[in-house]
Amino acid sequence: MLAAACGAGLGIAGLLTYSAGIFAKDLEIAIGLSRTSLGAAFFLATVALALALPLAGWLVDRFGPRWPAFAGSLALSGGFVLLGTVVHSVAGYMSVMAGIGLLAACSSPVAYTRAVNAVFDRSRGLALGLTQVGIGISAAIVPPVLAIVVAERGWQAGYLTLAIIAAFGIVPALSLPDRRGNRLAMRATSGTATGQMRSPLFLLLLACFGMMALSFAGLLPHFVPMLREAGMDARAAGALAGLIGASVIVSRVIVGWLADRIPAPLIAATCCGLCALGCIALATGGSALAWVGAIALGTAMGAEADLIGYLTARYFGMANYGRLYAVQYASFMLMAGTGPLWVGALADQTGGYDAALWVTVAGMAISILLFLRLPTLRPGEAAAAA
What is the reported pLDDT for 282? Predict the structure, then answer.
């Protein structure tokens, strides 16, 4: 579990999403990157990641988690090197971001949650929560560090620092088991992966997490620019971005622990409500209540990442987990990547982020209704009951 937590934090989920906004202001000056272009680049990376994730899931199911995760870490590190050395235009930035999403897919949580799900059953929620804490720690530590590096050394040095951090991911990757899983992994519901993907329950699960990600995840890369526009300097805004990561850490442990005790869909609906309240605080209180918004966004992100793997394993078992989780996670990432695009475009059109915050509140309300339609399995109940 320690190896999985470290690997997830040093992968694409821990290093790309939470750091993108740190470079926005400097890239705008250096290469003319607008807020819309920032969102478009993040969207391209996410589309590429979504396309590559099913293949990554198949590789993990077929060969075990170790070597796919190792290759993903190397690709992620190389991508950050390219961002810091060869990018001199908006087109170049977009191309490299898309390449990172395509080639670094195996550094995503697919391999790491597969390894943990294979050996935990009754306390699976807590185990997944602790695994995902690695991403929260990365989100808490890396943005403030990068903000200092960028302020003192420039944005190129910031990306090279990210490359060094990502390269350390090969250590936990090589610590994962070099096999598909133990006997618990074979306790799965019957049916092929294709048949399970076509089931109404799988499609409803896609809608739940997709709508949630589309609604709030777009605010994450725009959080620092939002605070900079409100008058904060780069270091203060970076520190508040770190608070998002701290909230992710706490929420992942709490949500995972609760998932072993009360129905997970109710937990997800509650977290959506908290996120909506945080966006209302940001829209009405501005930078004075930015800490409330940071905590709310971190809570939503932590809950979603925990519950995707938990509900996929509980509802559908482990035989096809890699592919099923990859599709769920790809949908989540696709919607999360679309978010910065619409948030940036709406901010450019309206001259600020207030409208985007209220749209997020409406999206969270829809997400609550969708989560309440999921079957409320008792914690630890067999997947076959679904």
Answer: 84
